[in-house]
Design a protein that fits this description.
single chain; two-stranded antiparallel sheet; transmembrane helix; 9 helices; alpha/beta; about 20% strand; about 280 residues; 8-stranded mixed β-sheet; Leucine Aminopeptidase, subunit E, domain 1
Amino acid sequence: MSDLAHDLRTWRFWRWFLIQTFSSVGVLAVLLELTNFIFGSIPIQGWPLAITIAVISIAYGLIRAWPRPIKQEYNSPNTAIEIVKGDLFGQECNIVVGTCDTFDTAVPNIIAKGSVQGQALERLYGGDTVQLDRELVAALQGKAVEATIQKSGKMEKYGVGTVATLRNGAHRLYFLAYSEMNEDNEAQSTPDGIWRSLATLWEEVSRTANGTAVAIPVIGGGQSRLSQVMPAQDSIRFIVMSFMFASRTKKVCDQLRILVHPREFDRLDRLELQAFLSSMRPS
């Protein structure tokens, strides 16, 4: 209910509501004029007619502008995008987990316990770092090491954009390296690095997901230190554009689900995001 109240207070809702309401008034006025011209006077006149037009127009405006789930289905490409508030690790689908290019896993010394990767370790592996490391090593076999770095923890750098694909029951975990680790174990990223990383992610999803839906968190915050440059609203648009461009080349998956933390979700302009999703349909 609080989400609905938030949307009803936005300028975008009221702007769209007024546009649709007055559009309805205009259409009804034209129809009444034609009816009056063709058939003579209509049976209802004066205030009753004005009230009828107002009720119909307001109802139409509300129906058209009323907030709905942030979701858009596309025919070309044949896919769907949904932006939801929820638990990333409660999704029954493939999941994307952001990480750094060294694929460090040590919590809390290197990886923050509250980060998406820290939660993945706790929720999906019961805190078993050894098991996660074993699976990451297997997934990274055959991938080139671009450089080594002198620091505590892992020292081999696979490069931004590397994807380690792990099994998670019937689904997959895509550990996506979109930030670069330095000698002080500080992870940093750039918009360009995230864009390139997403491109390689969609290639891997297309190759391995067999069309199954993919859930991805809002990326760019946390340890990557991009929250000021790319707030959640912009990060979501970034992910959507990257996914749609990749999907127009070849199918990535049936659905992309962008999971937003409740605290961030409450600050989103959700009607603007729905308008953005709609704008991505081919003209």
